[in-house]
Amino acid sequence: MTLDTLVQRTGRLLAIPRVVGEVLKLLSDPDSRQSAIAALLAHDPALVAIVLRLANSPAFAPARTVDSVERAIMLLGRDHLRRLVIAGAVTQASERLPMQNLLPLEVFWRHSAYCAVIARLLAELEAPDLAGTVFLGGLMHDLGQLILFSQAPEAAHLAFLRSLSEPDSISPQSAERAELGFDHAQLGGALAAHWGLPDVLCACLRFHHSPLDAPETFRLPVVLVHLANTGAHLAELDSRDWRDAPPVDPAVWAAVRMRPEALLESVEKAQHQVLAVEALRNPQLAG
């Protein structure tokens, strides 16, 4: 199995509905009318429900109640709504993956939700205009891992076991490359590109384990998602011990102005917000 064949196969399995592409085109057209966007999006009521849940999530920091797509455009702006639509479409698509026990959706989305919230909190400290972008990058960053465990479970499991048996000499990504010829970050980035998602999101998925390799244009958002991934591991374990999470290269800290303590503070805040993001998939959690 090659990266390209897996992307093509997964791209068909998780095809984003045509209405999403049409909505994204309208959102990019400054001459399109809000009513036309809302009417088109209404063809997918489930997607509208997810978009509105996310728009009203405390984790997305809305200023006022968003009760319709038109109001979302008016209050949040088209760029924010574009990210909400992408997040909703990817959330829907993940539900179509075959059931598997190696990486249950509940575990995957808990980690993804933590990463998204922490990335947004870090962006508010470092570059507020990137908050929405890195939230979505964090929410999607491990999509390639979910696909590997679903579509290539034996190889993914072997790579996982190998990285556990040699934790000091081989990283999980290196183990994946040894078994498959590519890793989950490369797969996620390639799938995002296949879907035609924005280049910055492709970079967040592709380079979230190697942020200093990201193109200079996208390095800061990738670094924020990278740091948020480390924070998400700490949050899941309710730990503040750096040894419990993937290590952060000192050069990465040098690329941003924040102190490592700021990441720990964001982990603390995120633990009070993560259920709101998880409720995207399961509205019952909102209660």
Any overview of this molecule?
With 287 residues, this protein is an all-alpha fold. Helices cover 66% and strands 0% of the residues. It contains 17 helices and no strands. It has helices at 3-13, 18-28, 34-41, 45-55, 69-76, 78-94, 105-126, 131-140, 143-151, 153-165, 172-180, 184-194, 199-206, 219-237, 250-254, 260-270, 274-278. Helix 2 packs antiparallel against helix 3, helix 2 (18-28) runs antiparallel to helix 6 (78-94) and helix 7 packs across helix 16 (260-270). The protein is globular and about 55 Å long. The mean pLDDT is 88.
Element layout with pairings:
Blueprint: H1 3-13, H2 18-28, H3 34-41, H4 45-55, H5 69-76, H6 78-94, H7 105-126, H8 131-140, H9 143-151, H10 153-165, H11 172-180, H12 184-194, H13 199-206, H14 219-237, H15 250-254, H16 260-270, H17 274-278
Helix pairs in contact: 1-12, 2-3, 2-6, 3-5, 4-6, 5-6, 6-8, 7-8, 7-14, 7-16, 8-13, 8-14, 9-10, 9-12, 10-11, 12-13, 13-14, 14-16
